[in-house]
Write a structure and sequence with these properties.
22% of the residues lie in helices and 47% in strands. By secondary structure, it is of the alpha+beta class. It has a single domain (2-147), classed as Alpha-D-Glucose-1,6-Bisphosphate, Chain A, domain 4 (2-Layer Sandwich). A seven-stranded antiparallel β-sheet has the order 1-7-6-5-4-3-2. The N and C termini lie far apart (43 Å).
Length: 148
């Protein structure tokens, strides 16, 4: 059974730059938010191109974790990028897991919306609330870096 989780956070930093980071420069996030992301490497394809494979090293819930993701969609008009997890720690809990980061730049503050679409391996698996908290915290860390 597929599940969906959505949360938003307002940022004061440039929304276009925020979108560009997740589209074309995710490998720079480790410099902006080293407590969250320790590394991001391109394994196949080109940055920002659908079908490209990206490998992440990150710390979630105090543990070092990894994720291998394919860029599933890039929507320039809506400023969103969707990553689908294909390997890594999340695959021990979920049959499928996708994360979309969308930036709305139409108001004074820019809104970053994170959307998770996932299917649990079994009923004992919790919803990814702490991972969503991680993503909101990551957005705030990137914002803080750009407001320096």
């Amino acid at each position: 059974m597929a599940n969906k989780m959505v949360r938003q956070v307002a940022i004061k930093s440039d929304g276009d730059v925020f979108h560009e980071i997740f589209r074309d420069r995710p490998h720079h996030i480790s410099n902006m938010a080293p407590a969250h992301i320790q590394g991001c490497a391109l394994h196949e394809g080109e940055w920002g191109k659908v079908g490209s494979i990206v490998f992440w090293n990150y710390t979630h819930d105090g543990k070092e974790k990894v994720a291998k993701e394919v860029i599933e969609a890039v929507d320039e008009a809506n400023k969103s990028v969707t990553y689908k997890v294909i390997e890594g720690d999340l695959m021990q809990l979920y049959k499928s897991f996708s994360a979309t980061v969308h930036v709305d730049t139409s108001s004074v503050d820019n809104l970053v919306t994170w959307t998770f679409q996932y299917e649990k391996l079994n009923d004992g698996v919790e919803d990814p609330n702490t991972l969503m908290d991680f993503c909101i915290s990551l957005a705030k860390a990137i914002e803080a870096h750009h407001l320096k």
